[in-house]
Amino acid sequence: MWAARTGLGLLALVLTAPPVAAGPGVVVERVETGGATETAGLEPGDRLLAWERGEEPGQPGAGGEFHSPLDLMVIEIREAPLGPITLLGEGARGTFALVLPPGTWGISSRPDLDADDLDTYRQAEKKADDGDFSGAVERLRSLTDSTGETPERAAWLLQRAALWQGQAGNWEEANALFDQAAGHLEANNQDEQTACLRLSQGDLLRGRSRFDAATRAYEHALAGWRKVSPSGLGIAICQFRLGRVAGDRADLVLAEKHYRESLRLRRE
């Protein structure tokens, strides 16, 4: 049986039916305050297992499992603009299904780690919070070097380490870690996840006014999405990001070119 509530045009559903069978899933760390996702009822600690999107005019339904936080980013970019997305998962309140409207979700997540690995990850976070970025990265590397590590999780851990190196201003080390993370994904033909990784790299670099390097990262992301399809929402996002960084550099002609292409792709 389903329990339901409504709020701000959203529908939040909590399942009392049998649990959802899905993959390893991702664990929610933070949810944007006041956003659609918080309103729908998603909470830190919830484990997201899978997603579904119903049929829309001209768009067949779709669905899949979450194996990495990068999967969540892929679905937010590729699927969410096409219609409401149902996130299937489990938490302290039991198994649930939350229906989110198109838009930005504002979810921060991590892989589902066992107790020992989670403890190591929390130690790394504590070191980063204390400004010991090299120590934090070393702790994460101890996880990525462990036997049996999946490419998706290894890539996410390396991405996290790269972000910390960027916060410390260690750009050569940060970019090398992003490259290593991309290598794990590319070896398994995970082009969309690789593209999302490069988007996060570009955002980090642009935020620190490293515009040349940010442009290269966004171009890598664009190439990744184009391996999947010659058009689409992923490419539109990349064109928009390239437009922003062109604007940052006061190249307004190039910025307009990217923005127009992004708009064209969104209207297709």
Q: Which tags fit this structure?
A:
single chain; 268 residues; alpha+beta; Pdz3 Domain; Serine Threonine Protein Phosphatase 5, Tetratricopeptide repeat; 2 domains; 10 helices; globular; disordered N terminus
Shape: globular
Please identify the top-level CATH class of the largest domain: Mainly Alpha
Strand content: 15-25%
The overall strand count is 8
Which H/E pattern describes the elements? EEEHEEHEEEHHHHHHHH
How many helical stretches?
10
What is the correct CATH architecture of the largest domain? Alpha Horseshoe
- CA radius of gyration is 19 Å
| CATH homology-level superfamily of the largest domain | Tetratricopeptide repeat domain
Gap from first CA to last CA: 39 Å
What are the segments in which pLDDT stays under 50 over at least 5 consecutive residues?
1-23
CATH topology of the largest domain: Serine Threonine Protein Phosphatase 5, Tetratricopeptide repeat
Number of discrete domains:
2
Mean pLDDT: 88
Structural class: alpha+beta
Description:
The protein is of the alpha+beta class and 268 residues long. It folds into two domains: 2-110, PDZ domain (Pdz3 Domain, Roll); 113-267, Serine Threonine Protein Phosphatase 5, Tetratricopeptide repeat, CATH 1.25.40. It has ten helices and eight strands. Strand 6 and strand 7 (94-100) form a beta hairpin.
